[in-house]
Write a structure and sequence with these properties.
heterodimer, A: Rossmann fold, 5 strands, B: alpha+beta, 6 domains, 18% strand, elongated, disordered N terminus
Chain lengths: 134, 922
């Protein structure tokens, strides 16, 4: 499982990256929505963990762009405060789930695993369809 | 530009990773779009009922299973979380604990999003089948949004300080319930409290927003959360954050407001700047976190020049190590304590202390308990010195029933300039009572008035000033810590000895009535009005009995389950976890259930029933705007109107609340998940024949992780290679006893079988190549679907067994037979009775039987599956003897005896190889 963590707060992002890597999780960081999309052009990710409030492209815009270009990637949204609007909008746009910051590390990883599992299943189905089409 | 990532991936992977310069990826990307368009049609097809007609290949079947299984599990997880959150809302609705608007918003949002997820997952399991859910959900969304989002009137106010005389409970969201409640009681009950004011939540937010202080605190908490290096980190982090807050400059306008409030106090004090007590009054977000209300500090006898510094210190106590441990361990993110702070004149007490309006160990003991010392009440609060103890009974009239005068060697007094001093007491005063009898009675009277006003037992701090007047310092709901020692309680309360003591309160209250045990559906049909429902498990279906039942006693059940929710909604007392109740309580026995204390009394205990009505319609939060928002939001969330899944109104379009939707989604997801075996034909080629040293043919298809090791080049799989928990349990039941062959058949039975066989081709088990005649398992580690055709009957068992008991489930269907309809029906009823005896819920329609069992622990599920495995083998051809009542009895007792033997054996031993199953095939 490859995770991309997108958050503009460098303290938050770097410590989370460090801690995930300590658990042998393959994870990369990006400091903005734009950087994330640029990274995804060159690299592969299974799950994107995405902060909702970022300067520039915000989380919802980034989510939309990711889902448009890479529909199979699962996205988990992070929000700083309980906002029903953002949570619902995100999930309606295809986010897998949302979590409140600062979140429990285990919970985040469970969610990422669940998202990865769903993604793998969907991906396999698509691959099989691709074969049929070919 | 060549890309290294492309070199060694599979062609299909190129299209997914969308590597820009890779030409192959570009080509494939086009096909991805086409594939995605086909995807929906494909998944629609996958999920359609027609699928049974198209035997799938094994890989498609595996994928389909994994997809459904995963969505199903996610749906269950959302369901559990949604119900837990609803329970929190209901607890808040009881109104005895303070909460703020933020609590209402965050809980509502979380519940809504969990329910939204359930609907999404159900849509995956059955696309388009429950379309009516979406508009219901959307309309609830709109209503909830309009309720919780407009700012409250009190939110609009941006005052930094509010004087006590202008404060009441409606300001709980600005002043914290501790200060709002204190001022409310004082203003309404004419009780004297110290002069003073509260620094509001708005002030706290304003301070923390200043210079990005809050963002910095969050960053540090996050870093610590990720650091995770032991307990000492909490001390380091706490010191770190407290330092940050205490050093941060107070915004000028806030400083001016606080000092302005203080100067007004000085003027009322005749110009001499008084020293003050500075006390925390947090807006508690977390209901369970209420218990650390006591953690937040108070600073006593603070002088003017220390006021601002002390204010910041009190704010910083929201980040004490114990609070941080609590927050970080629970991952409580939006749990930002907003600290309101009371500033009040310091009462230089002659004596002081703490009193409880009831016995804190026993809510039914209503004597007021007063602890008192000389000097400031601090000594009692800290528990540092021996105190005087008075107990004041309320009946027949207020009187001191008990007194112990302690040896009070030390006392706290106000320091001459500031702070408090501990003084050694050497004179005779230390042996004399710190209160006069009149003062004791006056205090008790005050405690009772405050308790009546707030509708809940109170924990009150008080002082006697130099003039001998009582001053109320703090009051808050009393945390009852129930004691298990009952003897003193009986002596103190005059209640009779309890017949039963145990369990936990699922819904509070007291009720009396005759016992009615409900263990199966048939019992429910005859449930009399006004009876007490006694059951072994708290099933949601018993919710339909709540209007007739006056109380519920259940041996098992979760406080967050449907039944507990409904019990609280109907205000029906409910005691769960009452082990042994079903055996101890017999039908018709008159009892009184005290769900608050976990006691059951024989007969009707009138004094107890009267006690229960004391607090009706009064409570702490009632009348606050926050509470009324919660009430209105909860009305759209927690009521359950769809109780019975078999009812004709159990439909998506009839869901009225979020609870209805969770119930509906849960029920339907189980239905959709456990018809997998029925709607998916078994792919013969990919299955393995079970190699189990028995000649009978059993086939196995591994859907996911049911095999220990993959079986590639072998058409057999050994039983030792199977790790499917439910399959192994069934297998144990199947192989536990040798089958003794068909029962002795009388001429009539035999003729009947022959006749049926000639009439019904499907019953002739001779077509060897057809899968219809094989017994096959479809398995994963925690899932198993068994289709068996033994003799002339047909059975499907589907089960999910894992350590998450809330997800565990068994569904069993049994149909057919060779005898005439009457005998087949008799056999079905025969099996039904055995299954009901073992706790299954059953249903018979024509000659088929359905049985269900859910949410037991894995060990219990395994035991029940053994029974099903056993019955699948040993009820073969029993239909033929069903008219012979002697034989029926013989077989019944033999089967039951063997089931008992089977259940008595230790956990499934999968290595046991000498398994006997006969080879007899009719």
């Amino acid at each position: 499982m490859k995770i991309l963590l997108v958050d503009d707060e460098s303290d938050f992002r770097e410590t989370l990256l460090k801690r995930m890597k300590r658990r042998n999780i393959d994870v990369e960081g990006a400091d903005s929505g734009e950087a994330a999309l640029e990274w995804l052009k060159q690299n592969h990710a299974d799950v994107v963990i995405l902060d909702v409030s970022m300067p520039g492209m915000n989380g919802i815009e980034t989510l939309q762009a990711i889902k448009r270009h890479y529909p199979v990637i699962e996205v988990i949204m992070l929000t700083g405060h309980a906002s029903m609007e953002v949570a619902i909008e995100g999930m309606e746009l295809g986010a897998f789930d949302y979590l409140l910051k600062p979140m429990d590390m285990d919970e985040l990883l469970y969610k990422a695993e669940d998202a990865f599992k769903i993604k793998t299943i969907h991906e396999t189905k698509i691959q099989r369809m691709a074969k049929t089409v070919a | 530009m060549p890309n290294r990532d492309c070199a060694d991936v599979t062609p299909v992977r190129h299209s997914l990773c969308l590597v820009r310069p890779c030409r192959q990826a570009k080509r494939e990307r086009r096909s991805v779009i086409m594939v995605l368009a086909l995807w929906k049609r494909f998944s629609d097809w996958l999920n359609s009922d027609d699928v049974a007609a198209n035997a799938m290949d094994a890989n498609t079947l595996r994928l389909e299973f994994q997809d459904r299984y995963h969505h199903f599990k996610l749906l269950l997880a959302s369901n559990n979380r949604a119900l837990e959150l609803m329970t929190e809302l209901e607890k808040a609705l009881e109104g005895h604990t303070p909460f703020s608007m933020k609590f209402v918003r965050s809980r509502t949002t979380r519940i809504y999003t969990r329910v939204y997820q359930m609907v999404t997952h159900l849509e995956h399991l059955a696309p388009g089948r429950y379309k009516a859910l979406a508009p219901t959900l959307e309309s609830l969304h709109k209503k909830l949004e309009s309720l919780i989002n407009p700012p409250l009137e009190t939110d609009l106010s941006e005052t930094f300080i509010i004087h006590f005389s202008a404060l009441d409970r409606r300001h709980s969201d600005q002043a914290g319930m501790k200060m709002a409640g204190l001022a409310d009681a004082a203003n309404h009950l004419n009780i004297r409290i110290p002069d003073g004011f509260v620094i509001t939540a708005h002030a706290c937010r304003f301070f923390l927003a200043h210079q990005d202080l809050k963002a910095e605190i969050h960053r540090r908490m996050q870093r610590a959360e990720e650091g995770g290096d032991g307990a000492h980190q909490f001390y380091t982090l706490s010191a770190d954050i407290r330092g940050l807050i205490e050093k941060a400059p107070l915004p000028a306008e806030l400083g001016a407001a606080i000092l302005g409030g203080y100067q007004a106090l000085t003027r009322r004090y005749g110009g001499t700047p008084p020293n003050v007590a500075v006390r925390s009054s947090a807006l508690n977000e977390d209901q369970e976190g209420i218990s650390f209300a006591g953690i937040y500090d108070s600073a006593l006898n603070v002088s003017e020049d220390q006021l601002i510094r002390t204010y910041k210190q009190i704010l910083a106590t929201a980040y004490s190590p114990s609070v941080l441990v609590y927050r970080l361990n629970r991952g409580l993110a939006d749990f930002d304590t907003e600290m309101c702070v009371g500033v009040m004149e310091m009462i230089d007490a002659v004596s002081g202390g703490v009193m409880y309006s009831v016995n804190p160990m026993e809510i039914r003991d209503t004597a007021v308990t007063i602890n008192s010392v000389w000097g400031l009440p601090k000594a009692v609060v800290d528990g540092t010195v021996e105190t005087d103890l008075f107990r004041v009974s309320r009946t027949p009239h207020l009187a001191i029933s008990h007194r112990v005068i302690g040896r009070k060697d030390q006392k706290y007094i106000c320091g001459p300039d500031e702070g408090v001093r501990r003084m050694d007491e050497t004179g005779s005063e230390r042996f004399s009572p710190s209160l006069t009898d009149d003062q004791v009675l006056a205090l008790a009277k005050m405690a009772i008035r405050i308790e009546d006003y707030f509708g809940a037992p109170q924990d009150i701090e008080w002082a006697i000033d130099k003039k001998g007047d009582i001053v109320l310092l703090q009051c808050r709901p009393l945390q009852i810590v129930p004691s298990r020692d009952t003897t003193s309680i009986e002596a103190n309360t005059g209640l009779p000895p309890a017949f039963y003591h145990g369990g936990t309160t699922a819904s509070p209250g007291v009720a009396a009535g005759p016992v009615r045990r409900v263990l199966k559906d048939a019992d429910a049909l005859r449930f009399p009005k006004g009876a007490i429902l006694v059951t072994d498990r708290a099933l949601a279906r018993w919710a339909a009995l709540l209007p007739p039942a006056v109380a519920i006693v259940s041996e098992k059940g979760s406080l967050t389950g449907h039944l507990a929710n409904v019990a609280r909604e109907f205000k029906t007392p409910a005691l769960f976890g009452a082990t042994g109740a079903v055996e101890k309580l017999t039908d018709g026995m008159m009892i009184t259930v005290d769900a608050d204390t976990g006691r059951i009394y024989e007969g009707v205990v009138d004094t107890l029933l009267e006690m229960d009505h004391r607090f009706e319609d009064h409570f702490l939060m009632k009348g606050t705007p926050v509470f009324s928002v919660l009430e209105r939001a909860a009305a759209l969330i927690t009521p359950l109107t769809l109780t019975h899944p078999d009812s004709p109104v159990f439909k998506a379009e009839n869901c009225k609340t979020l609870h209805d939707i969770t119930r509906f989604c849960h029920e339907k997801s189980v239905h959709e998940m456990f018809r997998f075996g029925k709607t998916h034909r078994f792919p013969e080629r990919s299955s393995k024949q079970l190699h189990a040293e028995i000649p009978m043919q059993w086939w196995v298809l591994n859907l996911d992780d049911g095999f220990r090791e993959d079986v590639v080049d072998d058409s057999f799989v050994d039983i030792s290679n199977i790790i499917s928990v439910p399959m192994l349990a069934l297998w144990r039941g199947i192989t536990a006893f040798p089958w003794e062959g068909p029962p002795p058949v009388d001429g009539k039975g035999f003729m009947s079988v022959m006749f049926q066989a000639t009439q019904n081709k499907a019953l002739v088990p001779t077509v060897k190549s057809s899968m219809a005649n094989r017994n096959y398992f479809m398995i994963s580690k925690n899932y198993c679907s068994l289709q068996s055709r033994l003799g002339f009957h047909f059975a499907i068992t589907e089960a999910l067994v894992s350590h998450r008991s809330t997800e565990n489930y068994i569904s069993f269907q049994f149909k057919g037979g060779a005898a005439d309809f009457d005998r087949r029906l008799k056999r079905v009823v025969f099996i039904k009775e055995i299954l009901e005896h073992y706790g299954f819920r059953t249903e018979v329609a024509t000659d088929s039987l359905r049985a269900r069992l859910e949410q037991h622990r894995a060990q219990t599920m395994i035991a029940k599956l053994k029974i099903l495995g056993f019955l699948t083998i040993h009820t073969r051809q029993l239909d033929m003897i069903m008219v012979n009542s002697k034989l029926v009895e013989h077989y019944r007792s033999q089967l039951m005896e063997r089931i008992e033997t089977l259940l008595a054996e230790p956990a499934v031993n999968t290595t046991e190889k000498k398994l006997h199953v006969d080879t007899y095939q009719p």
